[in-house]
Amino acid sequence: MNVLLALKILKLLLSELIDRSVERKHPKLMLRRTESVVEKLLTNWLAMCLYDYVKSHAGKALFMLYKAIKHQTEKGPIDAITSDARYSLSEDRLLREKTEAKALTVYLISNQQTVDPICCHMLDSDIISQAKEKGLDAIYMNTPFSHRPSIEDIDLEWLSGPNGDLILRDEDASTEVVRGWKKLNTLAHYRVPDGATMALIARHIKVASNGFSTGSSKSSLNISRNILAVERNSKSFHLVLPDEGQNIGRSQKVVSEIFLTRLLATKCTLQQYVDDLFSVILTPDTSSTLSAVKYLFDFLDASAHHHGITDQEVLHTWKCNSLLLRFWVNIIKNPEFVFDIHKSPIVDSCLSIIAQTFMDSCSIHDQRLGKDSPSTKLLYAKDIPRYRHLVNQFYKSINDMPPVDDSHMSHLMKEQSKTSEAIFNRKFALQELFKYTKQYNLELLEALEDNPNTQNDQLSKAFAKASASMESLNYL
Predict the structure, then answer these.
(1) CA distances from 436 to 14, 265, 441 (A)
(2) What is the pTM for the complete model shown?
């Protein structure tokens, strides 16, 4: 991997992008999207350079925030159909209807387990698929999600119930029908008591050599889209019976005022984890891991000086768009990019609120909030000034760092390349690159044929030959 060539190309393309943005009189809009080659290249360059920083510093805080959100949301009922939850940061995912839920302690065993049963906390309002997910979380606590069994491949069996051992299902002959809608079976439906003993067993239709059918990425994707693991009638509900005659957009303003207290309570529970993550992101490390950030910011400063840009808001915007909004917001909202985990819809909605708060903290303008402002803005309104101060201090700290010259940056890139060589997937990178080139195949060929610098090396023919080879190998 020629990282020095990649760095050279990145600087060249960034310079051209800055030139175009200045010519169009809209420099603040630069790097707001991820559509051009240079924007994609910058994103991946930052990901490679900040890999060690995420692994050794920010990763722990991010994972703790994810676990805290997951734990807090699962403390209360979550509708398996709508993904609305009693405990949420998002008003759009808030379970508005009053739902009773009793905490249960269940003792789990599995056919892979020889030790004592594992204690697992569930709710009697959980449908069976939700109970199975919590059971897998307890048994495979330290196992990557992609290596766990899928809920589609296991059954939950209640041992020594009133009528003997019983396999529990989301739907079966005992499923209740309410006004034409099937009410998914819950632990309360089966009258599972506190302290019950259950087993996670492999489904008889598909048994792997290790006793379970381990989850694949496809299975994980299916679960993330829909927690329900069985085929069922489309007219099913969990906690809230749909009212087809009622306007869904009912009294939204009143609802916001009623449930803002619950949103605030969830926010307070997660506050320390959010503070810890923002602090570790916005507190520069003294080691060389942030040298790439210093190098990039100095490059942007020099480019602004070259074009006579004195508006500090433009530079602030460039730096936010290039690092905080491009890299960190993406990581905050998508921790599954860093960890092998499952992100449920309710966790995703909470992370989106936190990511939006981080974005708002990058703005230099104060928010104008009123009684009609969305709850997502009101929730962290008092925290924004504190986070914004962290952002400003971060930029000042980076600015005060010793300059990073080209030779030092080249050395760091070489070292990073060596440490990343074992985990860098060249085949996948090549495949993704050719997917992109296929979309602009004719334009690239014409550019290579018309450019004097590439004509001598006959790069157009080399590109055409490489494309044909990739096509024949079914890479595209």
Answers:
(1) 19, 46, 9
(2) 0.86
